[in-house]
Amino acid sequence: MLRSFLLPAMVTAFAATADAQTIVINPNKSGVLPPATASVEPVRITVGVSTFAPAPSGDGEQALKAQEDGRRMIYAIAGRECAIMSEVLASDCHIESININVQRVGANRNFNEPKGEGFNINGNISYRIVPK
Hints:
Layout: H1 2-20, E1 43-54, H2 61-88, E2 90-105, E3 118-131
Antiparallel strand pairs: 1-3, 2-3
C-alpha cells in the first residue's frame, strides 16, 4: 500500500519540477522580433614591406644603430598602414603580428644593386580589420 501511495507522489513531484524549469523568452512586449542584424566578420590582411638601412661594415655601434633605425621604419609603416586602412576600408583595425628580418649586405654582394653596405630589412605585418 505504501508503494502505491509513493509512486503517484513521486510522479507528481517530478512533473512539478519540470514545469518549474520552463523558460519563456519574450524579446519585447509586442511579441514582434526585431529585424536580424548582419554581423560583419573580421578579415585578416597581411602587408609585406622592404627597406634598406645603410651602415658601415662590422658590428660596431653604428651598425647596431642602423638595424634599430630599420626596425623603427617597419614599425612606423605598420602604424600608418592601420590608419590608412581605417580611412579607406575598415571600421576597426588592430595589428595582429609583425615579423622583421634583418640581413647584412656588403658592397656589390647582390648584383644590380649599387646600394653599398648596410642591411636589407623586410617586414610582414598582419592586421585584423572589421570592414566598413
